[in-house]
Amino acid sequence: MNILITGANGQLGSEINDIKDNYKAHNLIFKGSSALDICNYNQLESFLVENNIEAVINCAAYTAVDKAEKEQGIAKEVNAIGVLNIVNALKKTEGKCIHISTDYVFDGNSFLPYQEEDEINPIGVYGNTKREGELAILDNDIDAIVIRTSWLYSSCGNNFVKTMMRLGNEREELGVIFDQVGTPTYAKDLAKTCLEILTNKEKEKISRNGKLYHFSNEGVASWFDFATAIMDISNTNCNVKPIETKDYPTLAKRPHFSVLNKSKIKKDFGIEIPYWREALKQCISKLNHK
After folding, report:
1. Which of 63, 126, 132, 141 sits at a 20 to 30 Å CA gap from 75?
2. What is the pairing mode between strands 96-102 and 55-58?
3. Alpha-carbon distance 184 to 226, whole Å?
4. pLDDT of 209
5. 35 Cβ partners below 8 Å, 6+ apart?
6. Number of neighbouring beta carbons within 10 Å of residue 52
7. Could you tell me if residue 139 is inside a domain?
8. Residue 69: which of 122, 11, 114, 136 has the closest Cα?
9. Does residue 5 contact residue 190 with C-beta atoms inside 8 Å?
10. Which residues form the RmlD-like substrate binding domain (predicted)?
11. Residue partners of 54: CB distance under 8 A and separation at least 6
12. How many domains does one find in the chain?
């Protein structure tokens, strides 16, 4: 297959690039926003047709949660209109698509891990625009799935793990929120899952059992737990103190609970998912060897 990876310079796109040699039977084409703008429909359609693109993994997204509150138009263009452009362009090539969404489509008021069919209720611009992007996939008749994920990090780009390691080396003490609970997700594990789903010959039609899936690493953590584990695994001598959300105000509201139930994706695609702390060890080991 000719597989296009949009948003190729981000965390997920970079991790897909790192494991591409495991999928040499397929032609993986990586494009960042400067090389291929998903918001430009004519450019996108021409590229897909001319390169006979048979599948797209859409990693392109506007992910600045707080800035999105002020830059609503840009967030909507990338997270919603851009996705619809991909859908309409893929109709020309009859291609497949995996689109990446977020736990922010939920309000965080649950106390049980969210299942795919649970009611959505975004609490900010970012979550609302990502939900619009989901609907571009769900409401159209193409072979495509949405994978919601949470708390994504990687050895590439800017993320919580790298920030904590840097601050931990600069400061003796850090305050980190303990009353927001979810699951960290190593982008490498999500990258592998996306490629396994697309290239699995036994499951040619990726949306045959529904278009919506959840993926994160296994287990549950607060941001405080996550930060403490980062310091522990990286041998960083910094005291992490738990603080409440109210002590760290942000422009956009965050869901207090966003643990995702992964039963469906594991059952439908036979995927094994690592425990979040084990995945974190792999990422930090990779960072230490860079």
Report:
1. 141
2. parallel
3. 7
4. 87
5. none
6. 11
7. yes
8. 122
9. no
10. 1-287
11. 1, 2, 3, 93, 95, 96
12. 1
Task: Burial-class residue 226 by CB neighbours within 10 Å (0-12, 13-18, 19+).
Answer: buried
Cβ neighbours, 10 Å, residue 125? 24
Residue linked to tokens 């529904």: 210
Range of the domain at 205: 2-157+184-218+256-275
What span, in angstroms and rounded, lies between the C-alpha atoms of 187 and 273? Answer: 12
The answer to whether residue 290 scores a pLDDT higher than 80 is no
Residues in the chain: 290
290 assigned to some structural domain = no
Rounded to 5 degrees, what are φ and ψ at 267? -70, -45
pTM to 2 decimal places? 0.97
Token pair, residue 126, equals: 């970012």
3-class SS of residue 18: helix
Report the SS3 class of residue 277: helix
CATH number at residue 111: 3.40.50.720
Distances (CA, A) of 46 to 11, 61, 86, 137: 26, 21, 11, 20
d(CA 138, CA 207): 10
Token pair recorded at residue 286: 């990779």
Give the containing element (helix H, strand E) for 47: helix 41-50
And the tokens for 34? Answer: 């400067």
pLDDT score at 165? 97
Residue 283 lies in a domain: no
Residue 142 belongs to a domain:
yes
Are 187 and 153 a contacting pair, CB within 8 Å?
A: yes
Residues with catalytic function: 126
Distance of CA 61 to the CA centre of its chain: 9
